[in-house]
Amino acid sequence: MVNRCDDVIQWPAGYAPADCKIHVINRIAIAAPPSVVWAHLVRATQWPVWYANASNVAIVGGSGDLAEGAQFRWRTFGVGLDTRVLEWVPDTRIGWLATSLGIRAYHAWLVVPTVTGCTVITEETQHGFVAQVGKLLFPNRMHDWHQKWLEGLKVLSER
Q1: DSSP one-letter code for 74
Q2: Are 83 and 71 in contact (CB under 8 A)?
Q3: What pLDDT digit, counting tens, does each position of 66-107 carry?
Q4: What is d(CA 96, CA 109) in angstroms, rounded to the nearest whole number?
């Protein structure tokens, strides 16, 4: 069983967990096939419906779903981010680079098939002044919100 994304994800230069002071990992088992989970995960414009820490998600070009190379803008943790999908393996993994003033982050997702559905693992690494201040003031905030994101994905996928 894969326990982390960094064994599989193609981290951009400087974003591997070993290269970042800020690194968060979360996981959850979901009783649904990877294709169902994937369909909800890439429907980014719908994140705010089931993940309260996402808002104003807009994919450049107007699509509702992410795709290979897609660019999108959104708000999370009170920060507006310009984001681009760098890694795309349908039903398996996605990774995006998100930037804003004082923050640069890479967020990777891995969907691993299991006998009962799949396990979803998500890891994020960050650089920048805003990221460091956020980690100092709210040390568990990103981990806690990412777990809520996974829990929302689980509820939606298991319906």
Answers
A1: E
A2: yes
A3: 999 999 999 999 999 999 999 999 999 999 999 999 999 999
A4: 9
Sign of the Cα pseudo-torsion (8, 77, 101, 24, in order): negative
- pLDDT tens-digit map of 31-69: 999 999 999 999 999 999 999 999 999 999 999 899 999
Do residues 134 and 108 lie in contact, with contact meaning Cβ atoms separated by under 8 Å? Answer: no
DSSP-assigned letter for residue 99: E
Rg (CA), the chain: 15
- Provide the angle, in degrees to the nearest 10, between the axes of the packed helices 141-157 and 129-137: 90
Q: What's the rounded Cα separation, in Å, for the pair 56 and 44?
A: 10
Inter-CA distances, 107 with 23, 69, 85, 95, Å = 10, 14, 9, 5
Record the pTM: 0.93
By C-alpha distance, which of 26, 66, 69, 68 is closest to 46?
66
The maximal CA–CA distance of the chain, rounded, in angstroms, is 43
Q: Do 56 and 75 form a contact (C-beta atoms < 8 A)?
A: yes
* DSSP secondary structure code for residue 96 in this structure: E
